[in-house]
């Protein structure tokens, strides 16, 4: 008699729960690095000469860095709220 072994269905890493958590952690790192870069560039832009456009650009860069920090903080809070990832298996899905 011939038996056939079925391979388990392959799920790419980016579609798994670990993949989502890893992507969110990388997004936090990305937000922090972007914020630091924007702060440095904005402060350096304001130092040499100050014209109206340079001040507007520097303020815009500082505001953008605040938004980057807020983005990282919100994602960090989301991971603290549900550290296993954005999706969670329940008993209902196991029975189907």
Describe this entry's structure for a reader.
This protein has 96 residues and is mainly α. It has a domain at 50-81. It contains three helices and no strands. It has helices at residues 17-46, 52-81, 91-95. Helix 1 runs antiparallel to helix 2. The model has no long low-confidence stretch (mean pLDDT 75).
Mean pLDDT: 75
Indicate the low-confidence ranges by residue numbers: none
How much strand?
under 5%
How many E-type strands?
A: 0
Radius of gyration: 23 Å
Residues in helix, %? 55-70%
Number of helices, where a helix is a run of at least 4 consecutive DSSP H or I residues: 3
User: What does the overall shape look like?
Assistant: rod-shaped
Summary keywords:
0% strand, 68% helix, rod-shaped, 3 helices, single chain, mainly alpha, 96 residues
Quick recap:
By secondary structure, the chain is mostly helical. 68% of the residues lie in helices and 0% in strands.
Secondary structure elements and pairings:
Elements: H1 17-46, H2 52-81, H3 91-95
Protein name: Chemokine-like factor isoform X1
Keywords: Membrane, Transmembrane, Transmembrane helix
Transmembrane segments: 28-47, 53-76
């Amino acid at each position: 008699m011939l038996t056939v072994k079925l391979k388990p269905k392959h799920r790419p890493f980016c579609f798994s729960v670990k993949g989502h958590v890893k992507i969110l952690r990388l997004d936090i790192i990305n937000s922090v690095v972007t914020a630091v870069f924007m702060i440095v560039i904005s402060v350096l832009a304001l130092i040499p000469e100050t014209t109206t456009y340079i001040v507007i650009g520097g303020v815009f860069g500082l505001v953008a860095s605040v938004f980057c920090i807020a983005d990282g903080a919100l994602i960090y809070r989301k991971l603290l709220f549900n550290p296993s990832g954005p999706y969670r298996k329940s008993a209902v899905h196991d029975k189907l």
